[in-house]
Amino acid sequence: MKNGHILKLTIIAILTLIIVPVSASAAVSDSCLDCHSSMNKFPAVIDDWENSKHAEAGITCESCHTAGADDPDAIAHMGLYMTPVVSAADCGNCHVAAFEENTRSLHSLGTLYYEVDFDGQKLPYLESEITLDGYTTASHNATVNGCQACHGTNMTGKSTDDPDVWPNNGIGRINPDGSSGSCASCHTRHVFSVEEARKPEACQQCHLGPDHPQTEIYFESKHGSIYSTEGDDWDWTEEDWKAGEDYRAPTCAVCHMSGTDELKATHDVSSRLSWELEPPVSKHTDNTANILGTPISDGTTWQEKRERMTSVCEQCHSETWVDNYYENADATVELYNKKYADSSSIVDGLREDGLLTEQDFDEPVEFKIYEFWHHEGRRARMGAFMMGPDYVQWHGFYELLKDKAEIVEMAEQIRLNADIEASLGIDVSSERSENDAKTTPGFEALVLVASTLTVVMIMSRKGK
């Protein structure tokens, strides 16, 4: 946390209790506001702040942006030291519980999840890394505005002058002060609205698209339908937000964060998740470590997390309704796991037999098995838990069935090609490379022979 912040914010808090602000500008004199107002610099930012809860409480620009001279993100500005990077820890000076809860959630691990794939060179198909003649000539030019826009960048040891890490408001951004998270991902600056963060549109910045279409699933669901038709009439600002009083159907925030008669509200969006639906094989969120070596949320068992979510559901639904829904959703996930095991074993067999190159994502079958779990599989699983029947069936299991047929056909073709190469005396080893075809003498002439033999072998196999 920034040096001197705790003392400063304590003084501000005391003054706020003593002085009842008549208006934002009358309550506090802020040198940033004075200067920027006179220069008409960032007028929209000033307007946003003046309409915020922060302004009402006397929290000014200096409260959040002031930095110590030795802070890693400090910038000399107008005789002061400030930072444009307001970290989660900065917000945590006042919002202690929210900061601690978010820090243990999967949201705060967004950047680390990205780096696991990047460091393992699993994302070349997204141009995370462009290598020519053995030299890396560009680094994640596509993903800095793609994956990392939501996952977050790692600002450790870097400054805001570096376009690879800034600007960025990814939910898992690793800040220069070492904290993880960007509260502005959901409570966009400089209003930092609770109402905004409670609406599903806040979540759709990241949770949408072919690989994690929670937003599309939500709006397809009965919950989303009710929100779309009635949401404008709900009370979005009530601090103790209650089902049936302030809203009629849940939003993303209701299910994953809001309080009930039995639960406290939380910023740990993982505390009610009983399944991990993102990886190739779904598993329960027990108090075992995930792929990053950290517990899911607070380390409680998946049954405890399920009970928390059940408490949310039972504000509107009977115990039998909820139990039956979960039983069907669980069965859907188990069915998906079996289908993935079946299809992935085909690709694994090709790799074990040395029929695929060592490079990831340079052959069509690798893209297909990836999309099997990362696209279609996620849609089927998420749809099952979020009342999205079209995503379970037509965007999910139908596509999985189609993927399986294509994987089988691709595998057969790869093995046929290997048989043909072997019959022509071409060395097929475990050290296959993506440049084999370009370096094989007389390859063009062999293509015609191989194609003819392939047709013959396919016809003979079908005739059996």
Give an overview of the whole structure:
It is a single chain. The protein has 464 residues and is mainly alpha-helical. The protein has helices spanning 5-18, 24-27, 31-39, 43-50, 53-57, 61-65, 88-92, 96-103, 110-119, 147-151, 194-198, 200-203, 214-220, 222-230, 252-256, 302-313, 319-352, 364-385, 389-423, 436-439, 443-462; strands at residues 75-77, 80-82, 129-132, 135-139, 275-276, 283-284. It has a two-stranded antiparallel sheet. It has a two-stranded antiparallel ribbon with strand order 3-4. β3 and β4 form a beta hairpin. The longest helix is centred in the last third of the chain and has 35 residues, at 389-423. The N and C termini lie far apart (72 Å). Residues 6-29 and 434-445 have low confidence and may be disordered.
Q: Kindly provide the radius of gyration, computed on alpha-carbon positions and rounded to a whole number of angstroms.
A: 27 Å
Q: Which strand order spans the largest sheet, edge to edge or round the barrel?
A: 1-2
Mean pLDDT: 85
The counted number of beta strands is 6
What is the percentage of strand-forming residues? Answer: under 5%
Biggest β-sheet, characterized? Answer: 2 strands, antiparallel
Large-scale geometry:
globular
Structural class: mainly alpha
InterPro entries: Cyt_c-552/4, Multihaem_cyt_sf
Organism: Methanococcoides alaskense
Domain Cytochrome c-552/4: 28-66
Protein name: Cytochrome c553
